[in-house]
Amino acid sequence: MLRDGALDGKVIIITGGGTGLGKSMATYFGQLGAKLVITSRREEVISKTAKEIEDATGTEVLAVPGDVRKIEDVQHTLAEAIARFGHVDGLVNNAAGNFISPTERLSHRAFESVIGIVLNGTINYSLEVGKYWIENKIKGTMLNIVTTYAWTGTGYTVPSACGKAGVLALTRSLAVEWGDKYGIRANAIAPGPFPTKGAWDRLFPEPLREKLDPIGRVPLHRVGDHQELANLAAYLISDYSAYVNGEVITIDGGEWLGNAGQFTPFKHVTEEMWDLWAKMRGK
Ligand code: HXC
Ligand code: NAP
What is the pTM of this model? Predict the structure, then answer.
């Protein structure tokens, strides 16, 4: 979507960059000229992805294993990034943990695990990278991946809903506080359904997948294409969006609004039924 070289000179850290949407964003950022730092817990996964992206795009990708919940791992990743590339300009808080369960079946550790990754992990990276930007007078850009239930809430993935709501509040808060004082921007993307192994295996397991029918909920009758999300992410992390700050952009084919609208079920009313209704009104 953006012109070649649109991210030339940028160094971007992507948490959870070894798989799924993180990998897709990383690949597109690399195509556009950014140098990348990807991090997650599984070293073999991020090393393989780093090599794949380097081979596909010709950019440089540093893979640093670490857990977003551990502050020493976060500090290590940032230090490695600066040692290798000299600076860091962008941060994508994409790592997440999630699973479906009735809330009353969850232990406190289950809550802690998901909130630890989603909210505390995002706080850890935002704080460490933010302090580095402030100290070095870098007007960096932060992009947080949330989801639409960050504001609607949802049953059955309640720890994730709590975590994502916190991330959205963090995004808007820092956009104002650090935007005002340091020119640091913070935005978020709220994706609807984008098939990835991580999300699908945990949230739509067989044999529930067919029954839950994630596509049936989307007014555009399809799931998202990873490139569509990568396009939006590239725009928001680039200087083209320099005046966008504190925004959350939904990319879900109209899913959440469609299911929130009180009269959306009227889509099941046939033309014949509408004709009959008109006749009854004397039209
Ligand atoms: C109930 C569960 C559970 C489950 C784990 N726990 N899975 N409870 N149902 N399915 C409980 C455990 O029993 C344990 O509690 C506690 O959670 C911690 O479990 P661990 O396995 O030790 O956690 P950890 O190794 O930290 O792994 C984190 C994880 C795992 C979240 C549990 O799923 C993970 O690594 N996920 C990363 C990738 C991921 O989730 N991707 C999907 C993102 S999709 P006890 O009390 O027994 O010790 C997404 C999409 C949103 O966010 C919208 C889509 C449309
Ligand atoms: P995914 O492939 O499972 O991505 C999650 C990534 O986070 C993995 O690479 C995982 O790697 C990493 N991660 C998990 N725990 C971590 C930890 N403690 N420390 C460091 N890294 C950790 O799933 P995805 O679908 O691409 O999700 C990416 C983002 O999109 C998430 O924020 C998710 O909430 C959001 N989202 C996805 C969808 C969708 O439909 N796919 C919809 C809405 C929002 P390791 O296991 O190696 O650590």
Answer: 0.98
